User: Fold these one by one.
Assistant:
Number 1:
Amino acid sequence: MESDLVGVSRDLDARTVLDAYRAGVFPMGGGRAITWHCPRVRAVIPLDAVRVPRSLSRRMRRGGFEITCDTAFGEVMLGCAGRQDTWIDARILRVYQELYESGDAHSLEVWVDGALAAGIYGVQIGGAFFAESKFHRVTDMSKIALVKLADRLRLSGFDLLEVQYVTPHLARFGAVGMGFDEYLRRVEHAAGLRRRF
């Protein structure tokens, strides 16, 4: 498989990250250098065709969880970083916190019994949302976070939900691959929309 690595840098800043997303590139940390990635096939979840597995639909109907947005961004990022092998390092945490503070990054949280059970975060440019990572502490809650994020974006008139790579897990929710040229056209269109998360 062709490498998606297109560059490295020692550090990064919020403006560079936003410009990179517009160009179809995103950063990853976890090593000495920041690596910049540009998969030639991009995973997107069509907001009008999100699939909810039957077992998850049953779990969602049972309730017992609460959804919030932008109330625990830092905690969500730390939850996503709390894995043995993670690309979310101190540089990534710092820059995405800056993006959150400027209104360019957002999180969706799932709470169970008053505790943070799962979350997902990403970057917004206009009507495009670039989902970065999700985590869970309670079974099925990160899946619920993804579905609720897609619902929120659809209801808010967003045009694009990007999830980087098609995986069997994401394909269960309707993720499909999109060629890079078409993806950039979609990003350009979506970025020109005025949407509120």
Note: The two ends are 35 Å apart (CA to CA).
Number 2:
Amino acid sequence: MSEIEPLTVVQAAAVEGSSELEWLVEGLWVAEGVGIVGGNPKAGKTWLALDLALSVASGTPALGVYAIPRAGPVLLFAAEDPPATVRARLEGIAVSRGLTLKSLPLHVILASSLRLDQLRDQARLAEAVERFRPRLLVLDPFVRLHRINENSAQEVSGVLAYLRDLQRRCHVAVLVVHHARKAGAGTAQAGLSLRGSGDFYAWGDELLHMRRRKTALELVVEHRSAASPEPVPLELLAGEGEPVRLAVVSAADSTEPGAALAESVVEVLKGADGPLTQEALRVQLRVRWTRLAEPLRALEREGRVEKTAGGYALRVAEGQEEIAWRNGVELC
């Protein structure tokens, strides 16, 4: 009888890690998280995946709004679109941000097929991830990555378990594009509308679900480890002579212009006992996450606000001015 290898067990306090949530794409995708970009056909799933890929590779805000705390290489497999089409779409997004695609560590897998239900292709993908060490791996779409029965929890879980293992071994975030059921378009909980086994929804740390509302697009965000924001209105911009790209629609729930909203942020921070997270600011100001992002960035650029470990706070000069005002002292 062979000797049993004991399980590794440590005290909970000895487990390495941080209590602070680390983001790959702030507010959308956690660092080293696995998850799904889902939705019905023609709902903009691929455009969203490409936008996130280019954002992580370049360090520029995703959808023009969501910050990238730390940029890094990206590895992409787009099974349904010809490589030339993928390049053209990425190039358009890059141009809209004043970037050149050639300068970015964004790599495309050119294999004609990649079957993750086969050990050989699992090994090939793992080798590519180990070679390029991406921060993000994008696989689009799941239906082209296998020949299993997507309604079989046993068969689906095998492929998803491989991707989870790849994430843990290589410390890479994994984004899988997956279709929604036609009959599930109106489901209240977005993850329940994903096609096939419920393992897709259970597996993901993140779910970004694209919905089409008549002529408008809507992004529903669900997190395993963070509160989910309100749905985000999106639009596919395709102006004459302009590159096609996905963008956040200006929120209609606040009539304050950006400058006025920035001053409201300052007033809230002045009255706070300590730093406030973006979510806490959003709740107090009653605006959407996306509406608040640009005023916060503007205040940071102006040096009036800084982002600390505990959230946003006034810089020292702003705090001194407030203390002086309270004491009736005029600063030079």
Note: Residues 251-255, 318-332 have pLDDT under 50 and may be disordered.
